[in-house]
Design brief:
alpha+beta; nine-stranded mixed beta sheet; six-stranded antiparallel beta sheet; globular
Length: about 290
């Protein structure tokens, strides 16, 4: 005699747990799928953007000469820390001339372009960027032979360009242009070659760096763009680097960079889009 199959209903607690597991799995799958689609769209954005910045010049993707460190998921989209190292092989006669930072999906994708003085065979540079939506961040180094070499990282962040400023506007404008310039301790150095002759300097400029996309929380009107758009750092009369910047640099722009100490004073000249001029200096230790 055939037994009749019996259907056992799981306890309500177990059913709820199963539903939760299925919901989490579905959400994870949808999130991965959405991130993958955004990453693919970002490549399309780069293909459209690249000719506007570099014309038809070839760019070596994922170049071993350039290393870019950036978080996969940013804790604060308005202050995403990045570090770039450009290092040429020993004996390579070329030098590093420029470094361009790009955030593909930002309203103004070119965050900054740095031009280096001297015969630099390696460069380390760190700063903080705004990231407006899931996007590739790219670091493109230009060498003395005209070659372009790129490293890129996909960063999950959103709202960085429209995030409210951290400081009250009145307070921010009172301190605008104040600088901090200091030599970092040897243990904090991060030069690409780890050569002992190189040191690290850190420069911070007090500035709200308004992007033009932030809203005044009282008036509900957009705050006009106002940002640091040029910096020049010299060691004596010798150029360490100059920078042309845009709205993608974070509030209170901070730049950490490698340089070769010569005993000469470091002098900084900077300016913003309102025509303000700022300067600072650091005398070498006696």
């Amino acid at each position: 005699m055939r037994r009749q199959a019996t259907h056992i209903t799981p306890p309500r607690t177990l059913r709820n747990r199963l539903r939760l597991v299925l919901a989490v799995a579905l959400f994870s799958a949808l999130t991965v799928s959405a991130a993958g689609a955004q990453e693919a769209n970002a490549e399309e954005s780069w293909n459209a953007l690249k000719p506007d910045v570099f014309g038809e010049r070839p760019i070596a993707d994922s170049s071993p000469l350039v290393r870019l460190d950036a978080p996969t998921r940013a804790e604060d989209a308005a202050m995403v820390p990045i570090t770039i190292e450009v290092a040429l092989p020993e004996g390579d006669p070329r030098t590093v001339k420029k470094l361009t930072l790009i955030v593909d999906e930002n309203p103004a994708p070119v965050a900054a372009t740095f031009t280096f003085g001297g015969e630099r065979h390696d460069v380390t540079l760190g700063t903080r960027l705004r990231v407006n939506s899931y996007s590739y961040i790219r670091a493109i180094a230009e060498l003395s032979d005209g070659g372009l070499h790129m490293s890129e990282r996909f960063v999950k962040a959103s709202g960085g360009c429209s995030a409210p400023a951290l400081k009250d506007e009145e307070v921010a404008l009172q301190n605008i242009g104040k600088m901090k310039l200091r030599v970092l301790e040897p243990t904090k150095q991060g030069d690409a070659t780890k050569a002992s002759r190189f040191s690290q300097l850190q420069l911070m400029i007090r500035h709200p760096n308004y992007s033009g996309l932030q809203m005044d929380q009282v008036t509900r009107l957009y705050i006009p763009a106002k940002f640091v758009d040029n910096i020049e750092v010299k060691q004596g009369d010798d150029l360490v680097f100059s920078m042309v910047g845009g709205i993608s640099l974070s509030e209170d722009p901070a730049i950490q960079f490698s340089y070769e100490p010569s005993g000469k004073a470091i002098h900084v000249d900077a300016g913003d889009t309102d025509g303000r001029k700022f300067e600072g200096a650091l005398k070498p230790a006696s």
